[in-house]
DNA sequence: AGCACGCCGACT
DNA sequence: GTCGGCGTGCTC
């Protein structure tokens, strides 16, 4: 018998091997000789012996006795290979666990806990009915924090499982807590598989087998759980749809939302996404009617919309303004919890006007210009536009301009001085990756009221819920606003809105103080004035006029090498090739936005250049990139990374 | 992606 | 004379 095998190499073809009948079958991993090497490949077809014009080698052994992937997953892999421009073998080796033996350790332990039977609100019930009565459709649960989205997801899941079908439940890594797993595990009588990046290969294999052996009804996890090898999925849930962590940071840089959409088509699954702050992509899709919007407007657990105050930092000399100080004092007095939210300082310094807060933008792309110290110029990292460092503000004419932004140390120091008797603790993602126990304790202490002020980054803005929390102070909203990215307004809006949701999660007296130099910014004002629809509509208009997603698609090609001259040369060559291929193709919608040194020019002793392309028609754009890269003979010391629909361009 | 083969420059 | 640089080509 012969087996056609995909290998984990950038070669988009199968290789044929001989095997003894019964030794392996479709869907199994096999160990095979390839040149002088031994590789693990994936059997995607078996056939009778036949004459071939090449020599055929024998399989070393079959890693699996029974299939580890389905034909539907193979179809998804082939689709991904086209969309993300990677070989099928690379896609398969990314989605299928590499473990060879199942882990001995228990999958996870559910702690017995009392979960009261929750009554659904009218809104929740009608959303649930809508989902249950329209299998195979796509829905968006658009609801504020605390509106009870999770309960709707879980009821919909129960219904699908009752019908004998399976469920995939995606949550952002950060919300994948032990508590959530425990709850889900109890609710679905342990017929749950867990898939996320922190599992070891053998643990991953164990959960994967649980699915294949029919011992799980629901797979829960972060991004990679979208590949759960169920044969018949009735429902795919994507909670917090707007989260960037659904996009893979490594090649192949897939987006779990896109993969979910493909698998939902394959298996006629219902797709339910949800968030309080949809991505602009999702918002446009709802607007066009491609997915049905289901609103959840009331908070089921009580709690009212937090009051938002914007503080102009231009008049302040300290990092904690007078107004924020007052609010903190009042909260401390009432023994209510305070979180001070600091964005991780951007990768770039941004130059701003000290009189009006204005940040200079690219005239072509409207993204913040970055300051290059060496050349004393302001540069656009999208299109390459550059201008000498301006001496006066283009908005108000003031000559008082400087580099802005402040670090966490300074805030911590000032908070300590202002509130000497308050107990202050720090919590950020950097700390989280190092010492999990310490983070857990910090959170517990804050919950119990043993910590008064929590100073944190991203982490405290998402996922965590504290009934004690009354005040959130955003130290400087400008730091997300001034990231040189066309999504900076959207990100700022989303972050502030999430922060606001945290403050008003359980209480009626929640407060948010946003400190900024840009008091007129759309995102900030929209959060304060609850002008959500207006914000989205306005942002869509801007994207449309500038030709950015969701009205176009982008592809970023990043070239890197240890040799500075060769990357620069290679990026010039590839750029010219792309231009040639585009003009020959006749696709008038596709163009190269720019070819530039990356914002992070040197990373891990590699020099980096980026070529950014845009196209209205994705097939056109994809074809241009694929053809150009096939035609381009990449020098051996250069590595090219392809990012389709990039979310971050650093 | 690796790994071999192969063809020219500068070294014991 | 050989050691080693990396361009080219192949792997069932
Ligand atoms: Zn100004
Ligand atoms: Zn530009």
Task: Give structural attributes.
GIY-YIG endonuclease; 650 residues; isomerase; 28 strands; single chain; 19 helices; globular; metal-binding; binds zinc ion; DNA-binding; seven-stranded parallel β-sheet; Rossmann fold; alpha/beta; six-stranded mixed β-sheet
- Give the helix/strand class: alpha/beta
> What is the assigned CATH homologous superfamily of the largest domain?
P-loop containing nucleotide triphosphate hydrolases
Return the CATH topology of the largest domain. Rossmann fold
- The 3D shape can be described as globular
Into how many domains do the coordinates divide?
A: 4
Q: Are any ligands bound, and if so which?
A: zinc ion
Overall number of strands: 28
For the record, the CATH class of the largest domain is Alpha Beta
**Number of DSSP helical runs:** 19
Q: Rg to the nearest angstrom? A: 26 Å
Describe the biggest sheet? 7 strands, parallel
The pLDDT mean sits at 91
Task: Determine the fraction of residues in helical runs and give it as a percent range.
Answer: 25-40%
Strand content: 15-25%
What is the CATH architecture annotation of the largest domain?
3-Layer(aba) Sandwich
Strand order across the largest sheet? 9-10-8-11-12-7-13
Instruction: Please give the alpha-carbon distance between the first and last residues.
Output: 49 Å
Instruction: Report low-confidence residues grouped into runs of 5 or more.
Output: none
């Amino acid at each position: 018998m012969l087996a056609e095998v995909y290998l984990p190499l950038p070669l988009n073809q199968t290789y044929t091997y001989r095997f003894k009948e019964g030794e392996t079958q479709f869907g199994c991993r096999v160990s095979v000789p390839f040149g002088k090497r031994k590789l693990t490949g994936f059997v995607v077809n078996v056939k009778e012996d036949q004459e071939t014009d090449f020599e055929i080698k024998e399989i070393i052994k079959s890693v699996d006795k029974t299939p580890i992937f389905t034909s539907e997953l193979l179809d998804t892999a082939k689709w991904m290979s086209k969309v993300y421009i990677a070989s099928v073998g690379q896609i398969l080796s990314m989605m299928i666990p590499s473990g060879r033996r199942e882990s001995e350790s228990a999958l996870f332990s559910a702690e017995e806990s009392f979960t009261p039977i929750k009554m659904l609100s009218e809104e929740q019930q009608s959303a649930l009915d809508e989902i249950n009565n329209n299998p195979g459709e796509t829905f968006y649960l658009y609801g504020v924090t605390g509106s009870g989205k999770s309960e709707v997801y879980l009821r919909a899941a129960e219904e699908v499982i009752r019908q004998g079908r399976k469920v995939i439940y995606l949550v952002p890594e950060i919300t994948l807590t032990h508590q959530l797993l425990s709850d889900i595990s109890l609710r679905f009588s342990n017929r749950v598989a867990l898939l996320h990046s922190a599992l070891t290969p053998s643990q991953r294999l164990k959960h994967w087998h649980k699915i294949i052996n029919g011992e799980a009804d629901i797979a829960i996890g972060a991004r990679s759980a979208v590949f759960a090898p169920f044969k018949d999925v009735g429902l795919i849930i994507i909670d917090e749809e707007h989260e960037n962590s659904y996009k893979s940071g490594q090649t192949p840089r897939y987006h779990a939302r896109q993969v979910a959409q493909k698998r939902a088509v394959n298996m006629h699954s219902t797709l339910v996404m949800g968030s309080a702050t949809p991505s602009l992509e999702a918002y446009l899709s709802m607007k066009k009617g491609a997915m049905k919007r289901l609103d959840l407007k009331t908070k089921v657990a009580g709690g009212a919309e937090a009051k938002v105050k914007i503080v102009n930092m231009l008049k302040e000399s300290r990092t904690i303004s007078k107004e924020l100080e007052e609010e903190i004092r009042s909260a401390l007095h009432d023994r209510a919890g305070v979180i001070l939210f600091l964005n991780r300082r951007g990768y770039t310094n941004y130059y701003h006007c000290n009189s009006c807060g204005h940040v200079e933008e690219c005239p072509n792309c409207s993204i913040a210009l970055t300051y290059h110290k060496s050349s004393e110029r302001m540069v656009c990292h999208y299109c390459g536009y550059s201008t000498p460092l301006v001496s006066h503000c283009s908005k108000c004419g003031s000559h008082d301009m400087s580099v802005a932004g402040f670090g966490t140390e300074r805030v911590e120091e000032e908070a300590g001085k202002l509130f000497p008797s308050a107990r202050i603790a720090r919590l950020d993602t950097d700390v989280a990756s190092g010492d999990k126990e310490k983070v857990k304790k910090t959170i517990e202490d804050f919950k119990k009221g043993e910590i008064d002020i929590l100073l944190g980054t991203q982490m405290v803005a998402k996922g965590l819920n504290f009934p004690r929390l009354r005040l959130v102070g955003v130290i400087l909203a400008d730091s997300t606003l001034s990231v040189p990215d066309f999504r900076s307004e959207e990100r700022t809006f989303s972050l502030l809105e999430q922060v606001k949701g945290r403050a008003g999660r359980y209480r009626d007296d929640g407060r948010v103080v946003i400190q900024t130099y840009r008091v007129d910014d759309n995102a900030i004002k929209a959060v304060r004035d609850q002008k959500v629809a207006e914000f989205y509509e306005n942002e869509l208009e801007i994207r449309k006029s500038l030709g950015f997603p969701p009205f176009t698609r982008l592809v970023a090609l990043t070239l890197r090498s240890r040799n500075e001259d060769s990357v620069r040369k290679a990026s010039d060559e590839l750029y010219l090739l792309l231009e040639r291929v585009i003009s020959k193709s006749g696709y008038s919608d596709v163009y190269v936005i720019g070819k530039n040194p990356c914002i992070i020019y040197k990373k891990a002793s590699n020099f980096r250049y980026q070529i950014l392309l845009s196209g209205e028609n994705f097939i056109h754009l994809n074809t241009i990139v694929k053809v150009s890269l096939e035609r381009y003979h990449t020098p051996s010391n250069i590595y090219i990374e392809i990012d389709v629909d990039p979310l971050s361009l650093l």
